[in-house]
Structure prediction request, 116 residues.
Amino acid sequence: MMIMSITIFFFFLSNLMMMMSMILSKKSFMDQEKCSPFECGFDPKSMSRIPFSLHFFLITIIFLIFDVEIALIFPIITLFKTVNMLTWIKTSFFFIIILLIGLYHEWNQNMLNWTN
Prediction:
């Protein structure tokens, strides 16, 4: 009986704390900056067809490629103990060679230089 009453007490106490935090965290004022949408640092109410630097797009694509690379390397690491060693080495080197060729191509095209 004692454990049940302590559980109910903490349940109501945690709910009370959550309600108090919701009430206290409400923002009562809204200014123009917070109500307007944010569009990549550009003012959405001005001219919408201003030139956009292609370099930002290329940096994003490079980031996505190397981000996916990390997601593909993790399963290769976990397969180390379950797969034949020669097969694992061939697959790993093939994957790393493809990534290094891509990195060399990006470097050769000056995509990694921020200033042109």
The chain has one domain: 1-109. The chain has a mean pLDDT of 79. The longest helix spans residues 54-78.
